[in-house]
Structure formats: C-alpha cells, structure tokens
Amino acid sequence: MDRRIDAHIARTQFGQIMDLATKNNERFIVDRRGEPAVVIISVQEFIRIAAPPPDWLQKAWAGAKRRGLDTLTAADIEAEITAHRRKQDPVTPGGTK
Fold it and tell me: What whole-number distance in Å separates Cα of residue 14 and Cα of residue 11?
C-alpha cells in the first residue's frame, strides 16, 4: 500500500520510514508543496519492479532456499570453499598454495 507523506515528515522521520519500507515492504510517496515528488521503497521492491532477476536466477534462489542454503553466513561459505579446496589439493598442507 502506498502512503502519502509531506516532505517535512519524510525529513524528520526518515529512519522510521526506512524501517517501514524495508521491514513491512511499505511504499511512501513524498509530496512537496502538495505535489508528488519522490517515492521511497526498499531495494528489494525496486529490484522486483525495475530489474527483476532472470528465471534461471530465481530458480537457483528457490533451490538454495529448499536446501537451506539461503541462511549461510559469509563465514559458513568461506568454510565450505576452504573444505572444497582441501579436497581438490590434498598434497599441499592446508590445501593452499
């Protein structure tokens, strides 16, 4: 749902507006002197509207989510990469060159 707000309110409550846009996926139309001037939306919503990912990427994301891979942290991913490299190069101690 779109919410119209005055530019003054947008300036004074910008942090709260950002939270609502990102967490609740709300959209805000900011008016200046009674006329719509800008829209505040989350990056995810912007990508969905302006630059939707190709089908192959959406399928890859869905597969990753089914396997629980969407919750991996950067440290988890780095550990997986390190373990894979060690398997590929068992001669070098630690698997690095």
Answer: 5
pLDDT class of 97 with cuts at 50, 70, 90: low
| The pairing of beta strand 27-32 with beta strand 35-40 | antiparallel
Amino acid identity, residue 44? Q
49-64: pLDDT as tens digits? 998 889 999 999 899 9
Per-residue 3-state assignment (H helix, E strand, C coil) for the chain: CEEEEEHHHHHHCHHHHHHHHHHCCCEEEEEECCEEEEEECCHHHHHHHHCCCCHHHHHHHHHHHHCCHHHCCHHHHHHHHHHHHHHHCCCCHHHCC
